[in-house]
Specification:
With 511 residues, the protein is α+β, with helices and mostly antiparallel strands. Helix content is 34%, strand content 18%. The radius of gyration is 24 Å and the shape is globular. The structure holds flavin-adenine dinucleotide.
């Protein structure tokens, strides 16, 4: 039976038309198709969007698949390339290099993680890198790409992939989808937000041209400013700067490296007080530096960034200041923050768009009525906070394990980390096992990739692996390694794979 008519949400107003705003609009249009719910996006072309956010993790593909979009369609619409993982350069000092793939390592046996077998062989002098047992990492390093098998014969064949995409083209594509499904768009600046005198809920927003927009539910996608959630609703910001020292970025677009096929990974190279990214797209590359302003002057950051672009610059570098952290309450009364307005973690592991996806999923699954029951809001806020903290811990791990000599890096190595992370590191060191909390975005294989990449392996392995003779283990692991290498050999180059998708096509679909 339908819920009482008078308590159902009938109008949703999304303020902000960046990646967060249009992802939310598209997903809600799809979710409420045929239901009597109006969805309006208010965005200001004068203010514009942040214009970065080009590397993703595999969940993005699940997000747009729910909208009925195919990989081919999104790749063509957004000039995308494939991403098998992230290549970390110089994080343990000059010359160090590893890949964090979206995928597994080796095959588990008897419920004991593969890395324990590998550690035992290593203790007997075997020098095969752990990454040779990861198909994702091996494909990435070889510059190859193909779709993963839908029915992998073993965990050896398991890998996943994401996209490097042009963020503004992605927003345009989502906008076309949302508008075709009935979403309205208003291009105007919000001047003020009016709260109901009785209970402090948002009643209307007033645009600078005087128009008033009413709504039952307001979604704040206004970016760092947090116009609704922060300024109007008073949700304060929890600052994580004590753990994550970087607070500034310069972003610049460039040509792709001349003659080079785009690599199927994001490149992040550690610098003296931060790190530099390189993201290959079909039509250009995205570059930027993220750094600690307490350790590096702006000019020094630019002097580091500009000589190391992927190709000739196409734009002027743009400065973006930020505070790592989160809103203490992402949802207050009838206002939910999604995107940068809800918090921000530096883009080292490309997590922001994934946090947007999960915020949207959470909003759909806890969708309120106009009574806005507090337990629903509390649950949303609790899940959001835990997810942000777990993601934060994963990023801090990279700083904690670094092997560089400059002051910022030394400080990060020596500084205390959150207790939730320390527990994980302690168990890992003592027993080679992973602690998994609720709302973790990263699988143990990702933690393993980082521990291994920083050469932070535990001293001991699981005693259960001793039931295998060394010769048998050695033969088994050689076979696994050979199977990975054979698959890599038989896989086409990333460039060949991309050639199937001519770019420039801007198809949009109705919801
Ligand atoms: P914005 O893009 O800032 O959009 C805000 C919207 O609100 C705009 O439409 C604006 O016009 C509107 N608005 C603001 N005020 C008003 C007003 N008064 N009236 C009307 N409209 C208003 N994420 C990833 O997943 N991968 C990455 O590789 C990645 N790289 C990043 C690199 C850097 C340096 C930074 C800072 C972030 C990066 N991110 C990345 C994060 C990513 O850019 C954002 O999560 C994503 O773009 C979403 O932003 P948003 O939509 O929340 O905000």
């Amino acid at each position: 039976m339908d819920a009482p008519q008078d308590s159902r949400i009938r109008s949703i107003v999304i303020v902000g038309g960046g990646t967060a705003g249009w992802m939310t609009a598209a997903a809600l249009v799809q979710h409420f198709r045929k239901a009597p719910v109006t969805i309006t996006v208010v965005e200001s072309s004068e203010i514009g969007t942040i214009g970065v956010g080009e590397a993703t993790i595999p969940t993005i593909r699940r997000f747009y698949a729910q909208l009925g979009m195919t990989d081919a369609e999104v790749m063509q619409a957004t000039q995308a390339t494939c991403k098998l993982g992230i290549r970390f350069v110089d994080w343990s000092g000059p010359g160090s290099d590893f890949i964090h793939p979206f995928g597994l390592y080796g095959q588990e046996l008897k419920g004991i993680g593969f890395h324990h077998y590998w550690m035992r062989l290593r203790a007997h002098g075997d020098t095969t890198p752990l990454s040779d047992f990861s198909l994702g990492a091996s494909l990435a390093r070889a510059g190859k790409f193909t779709h993963p098998s839908p029915n992998p014969p073993s965990s050896l064949s398991v890998f996943d992939w994401a996209l490097h995409l042009d963020a503004s083209l992605f927003a345009q594509h989502l906008r076309a989808y949302a508008e075709a499904g009935g979403c309205s768009r208003i291009d105007a600046k919000v001047g003020s937000v009016e709260l109901r005198s009785t209970d402090g809920f948002i009643e209307t927003i007033t645009l600078e041209d005087g128009r008033k927009i009413e709504g039952d539910l307001f979604v704040d996608c206004t970016g760092f400013r947090g116009l609704l959630i922060g300024e109007a609703m008073g949700s304060t910001y929890e600052d994580w700067g004590q753990w994550l020292p970087c607070d500034t970025a310069y972003a610049v677009q460039s040509e792709n490296a001349p003659g080079d096929a785009p690599q199927p990974f994001t490149r992040v190279a550690a610098r003296s007080a931060g790190w530099q990214w390189g993201i290959p797209l079909r039509h250009r590359a995205g570059n930027g530096i993220v750094f600690s302003s307490a350790h590096l002057e702006d000019q020094q950051a630019l002097d580091t960034l500009m000589p190391n672009l992927m190709g000739e610059p196409l734009t002027e570098p743009r400065r973006i200041g930020f505070r790592p952290g989160r809103r203490r309450q992402a949802w207050v009364k009838n206002c939910v923050a999604i995107g940068l307005s809800a918090g921000f973690l530096e883009p080292l592991e490309s997590t922001s768009i994934a946090l947007i996806e999960n915020g949207i999923e959470r909003l759909k699954s806890l969708f309120p009525d106009r009574n806005f029951a507090q337990p629903v809001i509390d649950e949303y806020n609790d899940q959001s906070a835990r997810e942000m903290e777990r993601t934060r811990d994963f990023i801090i791990l990279h700083y904690k394990l670094n092997g560089r000599d400059e002051p910022m890096w030394r400080d990060c190595r020596e500084a205390a980390v959150p207790e939730t992370l320390q527990r994980k590191i302690d168990l890992w060191k003592a027993r080679g096992q992973f602690v998994r909390y609720r709302w973790e975005m990263f699988h143990p294989a990702s933690w393993l990739a980082i521990y291994d990449g920083f050469n932070a392996m535990p001293d001991t392995y699981d005693p259960g692996v001793e039931s295998f003779a060394i010769a048998d283990l050695s033969r088994g692991l050689s076979e696994m390694r050979a199977a990975v290498a054979k698959t890599v050999d038989a896989t086409p180059d990333h460039a060949q794979f991309l050639a199937q998708f001519p770019t420039g096509l801007d198809r949009s679909r109705a919801a």
